[in-house]
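Q: I have 377 residues here and want to know how they pack in 3D. Can you give me a structure?
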Amino acid sequence: MQKQIYLDYNASTPIAPDVAAAMRPYVDAEFGNPSSGHWASTTAKRGIERARQQVAVLLGCTADEIVFTSGGTEANNLALKGVFFTCRERGNHIITSQVEHPAILNPCRFLERLGATVTYLPVDHSGRVDPDDVRRALTPQTVLVSIMHANNEVGTIQPIEEIARIAREHGALMHTDAAQSVGKIPTNVQALNVDLLTVAGHKLYAPKGVGALYIRRGLRLEPLLHGAGHESGRRAGTESAILTVALGAAAAYVDLTSIGRIKALRDRLWKTLRERFGDGIVLNGHPEHRLPNTLNVSFPGLVGPEILARIPELAASTGSACHAGTVELSPVLKAMGVEPHVGMGAIRLSLGRPTTEDDIRQAAERLAEAARAYTTV
């Protein structure tokens, strides 16, 4: 068997050893309900509050501005729907982009059925939103601007600071989905100047099923879930000490100084592929303003899923999907204006902390072999 190579860290990360160790006591013994008032709840409650502080330190905010959720999707829904239902007497207009994750686009479409007006901004060929487009889209009815920090498919980083400044000048709230950027690039909420920011645990070496939403102090949101007064009344449901402790440990584990190694490996992979394919390979996304671990490339005239089907030992993602013998281009690549014959050959290779030089070398070799075999059939 060929060595298995995992280059799909933008899809999900393994649980880091330090995170698993932090979870262990809450699996084995500390089972108490954190909201109970007796001895069995004390350790669980203390663990949750420590985790809240750890996430707050990572984001540069205070602990009471962190609300734990079941993941990035819930955090995005809480931001969008919470603002809409809270502010609907003031306005009903939301601004977002065409390259957002479905966890943003689908809630927006739902809110449109409830009377919201949503502007879906275009992006340039690299996947970036023009801040001037945000300025032109703002109206007196705009209550929220929601633009992702970094794109999950191509890694393009948006100019959030500038967009947030424009939104604030017009009295609109600013939310960014930072599920892909937290832990990879700086995500200080004060520097970004945002009111709301989404975190997803399983992109951060924590388990699936946990996330967080930063909510600027003083900002009230209508809850998604109504029940008892958990999370200071902002998110009902008995807290999971196991999962929140894990997210806190993952936040504390972040070391942005190590990202340089991952970026160097990514750049080496791109250099190797360029040497092998020349003009037969295309970079998708911004060449500079891009996540340091993300490489989205296209093999023009080929089909990404068919290339990867020839390399079962390589875990990666594609920019197109095969349905009943036809190929559908990714909505992100389509919004970027990528030609179908280029976009259908897209493959996303995303690196992580465990990625080695040997992984990169073998991935380049396997891709070269698969592409050559594909073109000779």
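Q: Anything worth noting?
A: The first strand starts at residue 5 and ends at 6. Residues 17-253 form a domain with the Aspartate Aminotransferase; domain 2 fold (CATH 3.40.640.10).
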